User: What shape does this take?
Amino acid sequence: MPRALITGITGQDGSYLVELLLSKGYEVHGIVRRVALEDPSHRMWRIKHLLKDIRLHAGSLESFPSIYKTIVDVKPDECYHLAAQSFVSYSFEDEFSTLNTNINGTHFMLTAVRDVHPECRFYFAGSSEMFGKVREVPQSETTPFHPRSPYGISKVAGFDLTRNYRESYDMFAVNGILFNHESPRRGYEFVTRKITFNAAKIKLGLASELSLGNLDARRDWGHSEDYVTAMWMMLQQQKPDDFVVATGVTHTVREFCDAAFKHVGLDYRDYVVVNPQFFRPSEVDVLMGDSSKAQRVLGWKPGRLFEDLVKEMVDADLRSLQEKNG
Ligand code: NAP
Ligand code: GDD
Assistant: This one.
């Protein structure tokens, strides 16, 4: 039975990845913060249906000893390093903690794997945010990085560390360059979930307006459940390599609003207000990925596209709000 360790197991991607790995017969371990272990119903809502099938270890990205000890205890065959301060907006408010947590956390993971169990295959959750002020459209593995946020900078550092450990220590260490991916398990602070949750609330008479920032930003949105499959595929290859994972289709935030509100029979222009508070000091204007390498080498396919994703998210929010509010 192969053994996998996931950091960020309580997050959106972590939860879908656990389901995938369990279905493939893996023994699954996860690193979680102690506060989560103490408050599972709130802090582990995405994986509460899986708790009996996995093993959790208390630890955090700030603590090298906790990471080192977990690698010693688990000796995983595969390690999926997904934990991070992942909210771009917040990275402008607290640059120092985002850079510390994301860069040191990745460095701690790589060092511990190298020193304790170097045969472990290592996945790093890189991001399309690394392309930032994009040099070309679409973006591929050869597009230069130009990050536009402290978060993006931290991911470029993680990418470089991962590649450097591969080249210096002959480790099977790979970078996924994943474009935005969403689902009904997406955090409420991200724009897609903010839109689908509020469209559902407005439809049910529980809210009357939605404040957003830049409606003209373009993102390449896929489905988290389809993207975690690509992570697993990257670790099954003969040779370690880096891959872009994206749908190849881009939409504006405005188009996302339009689709979500239309799905509940409303016109977003009657409810969405632009609030400068949600603009960022510097923006990533357009993301659109070229995942032809992942499709060719891994045999991966993007799966669910924009329209189906929006509908799934709105329907899930409608259902859960109806359950909660009778
Ligand atoms: P997410 O839902 O925000 O989950 C982040 C996870 O990291 C949570 O489990 C969180 O634990 C954990 N974490 C944060 N700080 C930690 C710390 N100091 N110590 C230990 N754990 C910590 O993110 P996601 O959407 O699943 O994304 C997974 C990874 O892919 C992230 O690295 C993200 O930056 C990257 N990524 C995401 C996307 C996307 O569109 N979703 C695209 C490209 C790359 P708590 O539950 O305790 O907070
Ligand atoms: N969050 C948010 N809230 N974003 C808004 C809002 C708002 O009220 N209004 C407009 N936006 C715009 C943002 O300015 C950005 O251009 C776009 O919506 C998407 O924002 P997010 O959903 O917060 O995602 P992100 O693209 O910044 O970052 C996500 O994708 C990255 C991959 O490109 C995160 O998941 C990152 O962790 C990930 O690496």
